[in-house]
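Our consortium's second objective concerns turning raw sequence data into structural hypotheses that experimental partners can test. To show how far this objective has progressed, the report includes one record in full. It was chosen at random from the queue rather than selected for favorable results. The single chain below, 164 residues long, was entered without modification.
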Amino acid sequence: MYARSFIDSLDFAQNGKQIDAEVPFAELPRLLDVLDNPQGVLQYSLHGVLDSLGNPALDVRMSGLCQLRCQRCLKGMEYAVDYESRLLLRDEAVLEALQDDNEEFDSILADAHLDVLELLEEEILLSLPIAPKHDLGACRAAVNEKMQKDDRHPFAMLEKLKRN
């Protein structure tokens, strides 16, 4: 089992700390539900920063190659995780005020015991396509459907009814 990293997010950001590491996709349990195959490794970098207004934030970068399940043919397909984001650290009152204003901010709750892998897993899940599919022409199900449609004339069924 992979050792989980926990950080004090405000201290991490205010002191400009950084983590560069990797984790197997198999160690991200919520992500396993959408993966076709748990093989592969996620490389990540987490860097604490203060933005131009002095607000604490986390710069998150992730990359890796995982196997998702194509929603056309239900076979595995390679998906490149290439993610970069800045997450502002907010306290609970500020987050509630932002939600009341219906404004879109990439913000998370500042936490003295933030689980880094849980944060990474959440960000990956939010960035994945809703229904992953192979590119056109690469999916066997799409090719088979196209061949079947080309072999039949669209009015063949009507012709059978006419003869009866």
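The partners drew two points from this record. The chain has a mean pLDDT of 82. The helical segments are 9-14, 92-100, 116-127, 140-151, 156-163. Both points have been shared with the crystallography group to help prioritize constructs.
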